[in-house]
Amino acid sequence: MYERIRHLREDKDLTQTQVATYLNCSQRIYSNYERGEVDLPTVILIKLAELHNTSTDYLLNRTNRKKPYPKD
Questions:
Q1: Domains and CATH numbers, the chain
Q2: HTH cro/C1-type domain: from which residue to which, for each copy (predicted)?
């Protein structure tokens, strides 16, 4: 999961600081998320899925389909 989060960030040419600002956390905390040193809180997981326009299942390696689910 953590590699996907990093790759998605890098694909958008975003820095850890930029993503951390979006998530309202420090760069250090976000770096810990990317390295898998800290479990992702659900609210952060959802925000990352929204930022990268994907599903939480994709971030959690439950699917290889990047496209998000349609919202009802």
A1: 2-59 (1.10.260.40)
A2: 5-59
